[in-house]
Amino acid sequence: GRGDRVAFVGRNGAGKSTLMGIIGGRVSFEEGERKLGHNVTVQYFGQDPGKNLDHLKTVLGELESVSPDEMRPRLRTLLGSFLFSGDDVEKKVGVLSGGEKSRLVFAKMLLRPANLLLLDEPTNHLDVSAREVLEEALERYEGTICFVSHDRSFMDRIANKVLEIEDGRLRVYLGDYSDYLWSKEREAEEAEGERAAGEARAAPRSGRAGGPKSREQKRREAEERRRRSSA
């Protein structure tokens, strides 16, 4: 729903990035239907964020290429908020580090924000300061976010729902990642309790079946004790 921040979780190979790609229209599929809501626009951040940047442009030029005219006076301020200060904005995109490219892509995404952001491992390559900047920007963002991340602190700060992908099935948990782990622990405890209760219910039946033999065994043991005491 609008304003949801959904973390996709599941073991490696479960299909988290594939599902993200299907939602973003980047991955084809054989069955089912991809249907976005009315007037939904999508921005996608993949694991190779510099892939769609023009390496011959400057940092500022890359933003100018997609900026509405009314935003141009504020581009340096926007870049500053993503830790590009002073002469940094005149750097060629081609010489940027992975973390700098990620920050530039995020600045572009939020320059003309869509109402659905799809983020695949968004904190890769980011240092602590850059991650903090990204988290603050996403907290201010009013649209819907779906993301894949192995960064637990990021998931706890951003997510308000967790979508678990397991064996091709999807299950939604409310809350952040810590809430999800708590729910999984409770489920495991309940399953263990049900298993133990099932064993306890089965035990009297097996006990009754073995009852006569058990009493016979006790009788023989008592006779053996009497024989020893009289010897």
From TrEMBL:
Q: Which Pfam families would you find in this protein's record?
A: ABC_tran
| Taxonomic placement | unclassified sequences, metagenomes, ecological metagenomes
Q: Where is this region: Disordered?
A: 191-231
Which stretches make up the ABC transporter domain? 1-192
The GO molecular function terms of this record are: ATP binding; ATP hydrolysis activity
Please tell me whether the keyword Transmembrane helix is annotated for this protein. no
Q: What is this protein called?
A: ABC transporter domain-containing protein
Q: Which organism is it from?
A: marine sediment metagenome
Q: Where is the composition biased (Basic and acidic residues)?
A: 213-231
Q: Output the PROSITE patterns linked to this UniProt entry.
A: ABC_TRANSPORTER_1, ABC_TRANSPORTER_2
